[in-house]
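Quick one, probably user error.
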């Protein structure tokens, strides 16, 4: 049997803005946010095996579950049946977990696209998007990526013209953030954080300095981890505005040139932070 293998890159995302606009009767919060894919990637290698051979999933990070709890496995089950067979998948993680960078959702979207292609499944784009919606709020975004305005509870997506390539530094410590706890703290605030989305939309296609000055995230007001404070301080010392991504705990900052980006990355690494990377918007 000839081995057929597909290798896919699954990009991370940042939230250039994240505004909480309300809370529904079912408890879900509504939001407005500009999502943007960035050049930090997980890699998925999908290999066809014998049709009756049960699915195997392996990962380079021991803490990542390599079973039915993983969104990649769930994607395979949606396309290949509840007891998926005929594929071996290896997941190489570079996107940190609990970072607000969408790594699990991106891996899931890559698995959906990859399995459909490798097995030649008769699933059109609209059907694939429906499956993506059933697997998680951010998964449909990663089917296309790019620059997208996200509204509702994340299900209303408006693709935008791709923004010009921008240079970023992203950092994360060892701690993760509880999203439900973040929302709970936001609900308790007497005054909600000022919205940033309209300012970001106005600045998307102008100069980088104006755009990054406009970026903002409501969760910044309620996220006070020691490592996040440390990242913010180092970014400010280097003339960069720190902005949380998603509900955290990764923080990004836009840089004006490669020298500034390298200096900032080195300062973050010197402080002992386990993840500090330079990347570009993609």
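Nope, works fine. Designed sequence:
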């Amino acid at each position: 049997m000839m081995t057929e293998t597909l290798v896919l890159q699954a990009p991370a995302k940042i939230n250039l803005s994240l505004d909480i606009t309300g809370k529904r009767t079912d408890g879900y919060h509504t939001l407005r946010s500009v999502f943007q894919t960035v050049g930090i990637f997980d890699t998925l290698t999908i290999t066809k095996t014998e049709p009756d051979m049960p699915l195997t999933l392996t990962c380079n990070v021991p803490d990542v579950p390599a079973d039915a709890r993983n969104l990649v496995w769930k994607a395979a089950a949606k396309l290949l049946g509840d007891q998926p067979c005929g594929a071996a998948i290896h997941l190489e993680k570079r996107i940190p977990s609990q970072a607000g960078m969408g790594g699990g959702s991106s891996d899931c979207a890559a698995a959906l696209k990859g399995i459909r292609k490798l097995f030649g499944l008769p699933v059109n784009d609209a059907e694939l998007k429906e499956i993506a919606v059933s697997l998680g709020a951010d998964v449909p975004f990663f089917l296309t990526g790019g620059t997208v305005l996200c509204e509702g509870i994340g299900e209303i997506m408006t693709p935008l013209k791709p923004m010009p390539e921008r240079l970023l530094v992203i950092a994360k410590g060892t701690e993760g953030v509880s999203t439900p706890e973040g929302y709970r703290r936001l609900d308790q605030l007497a005054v909600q954080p000022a919205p940033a989305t309209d300012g970001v939309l106005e600045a998307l296609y102008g100069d980088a300095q104006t755009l990054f000055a406009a970026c903002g995230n409501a969760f910044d007001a309620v996220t006070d981890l020691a490592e996040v404070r440390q990242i913010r301080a180092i970014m400010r010392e280097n003339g960069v505005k720190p902005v949380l991504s998603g509900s955290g705990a990764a923080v990004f900052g836009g840089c004006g040139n490669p020298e500034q980006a390298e200096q900032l990355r080195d300062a973050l690494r010197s402080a002992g932070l386990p993840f500090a990377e330079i990347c570009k918007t993609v």
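The radius of gyration is 19 Å.
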